[in-house]
Specification:
This protein is α/β, with parallel strands linked by helices. It has 3 domains: 5-110, 3-Layer(aba) Sandwich (Cobalt-precorrin-4 Transmethylase, domain 1); 116-221, Tetrapyrrole methylase, C-terminal domain (Methyltransferase, Cobalt-precorrin-4 Transmethylase, Domain 2, 2-Layer Sandwich), CATH 3.30.950; 231-275. The chain is 45% helix and 17% strand. It is built from 11 helices and 10 strands. It has helices at residues 21-29, 38-47, 62-74, 94-103, 116-124, 141-153, 164-177, 201-210, 232-242, 247-258, 262-275, and strands at residues 5-8, 32-35, 54-56, 79-82, 107-110, 131-136, 157-162, 182-187, 195-200, 217-221. Strands 3-2-4-1-5 form a 5-stranded parallel β-sheet, sandwiched between helices. A 5-stranded mixed β-sheet has the order 6-7-10-8-9, sandwiched between helices. The longest helix is centred in the middle third of the chain and has 14 residues, at 164-177. The radius of gyration is 23 Å and the shape is elongated. Bound molecules: S-adenosylmethionine (SAM). Residues 13-14, 83, 85-87, 90-92, 115-117, 161-162, 186, 188-191, 216-218 line the site of S-adenosylmethionine.
Length: 276
Amino acid sequence: MNFGTLYLCPTPLGNMEDITLRALRILGEADKIAAEDTRRTRKLLSRYNIHTPLTSYHEHNRHKKGAVILAWLQAGLQVALVSDAGTPGIADPGEALVKDALSNGIQVVSLPGPVAAVTALVASGLPCVPFAFYGFLSARGSDRKATVSRILGEDKTVIFYEAPHRLVKTLAELHADEESRQVVVARELTKVYEQFVRGTLTEVQAHFSVNEPRGECTVLLAGKVNMPCLVEPVMLVEDLLKKGLTKKEAIREAAIRLKLPRNDVYKRVLKKNKDS
Ligand code: SAM
């Protein structure tokens, strides 16, 4: 008997229209759909009139249910894997099932579709290439400290996922070392209250300290040498002036930190002063 295929089916991040025709066809034709959140997937299936049997596959049952899904595939069934939103395998248990399927000789087919990280990146205004994706940051302890210092040391745009109730604390941790680094928080992508909050770590942290973050958040941090915003060197100079440096010292320090010619920073400060 031929083995079945494991199809990785991306689903909408919020807006129900963000699903491909192919994903809908595969969801309709599969023998089983394994979903991270069956309630959420049921809503999607009912919207598109799909009646394929649904089963749960999530972090807490992934060992037991993974074995069941593998047995189905080995028996020739076609299985579509769906995460609660976006692409299965990106910061969810899909990755483990893919590894098991491949190591058992089962074909895995990846359908293209929404990913929160990429959806946020392309509209962030930060350099899109190269980027580093960290999924969820480890929650506490020395791992956490190591991760925070690692992401601040990245010279690529860093993307990570964060729960809204931890956002302010995380921004504060980053801000402790890098006040003027550009950051973007993409909230509720593709939904009615979609919002991009862009600015320095000081500005964005201040914003969310007053406006309690709600909904789903993706955070993007400019790489160490990627300072894309023209006004940014000027903000850094202003921060340094507030810390008591003279104008000359602040410009020199900003130029060193941003790896820009000193004269370039000087001209930007002059221009800003002229414009304001
Ligand atoms: N597999 C998904 C993907 O392809 O992006 C990610 C799953 S991960 C368990 C869920 C996290 O993704 C959320 O906590 C949030 O950080 C991010 N996310 C998901 N939907 C989002 C949205 N609409 N707006 C912003 N971030 C979102």
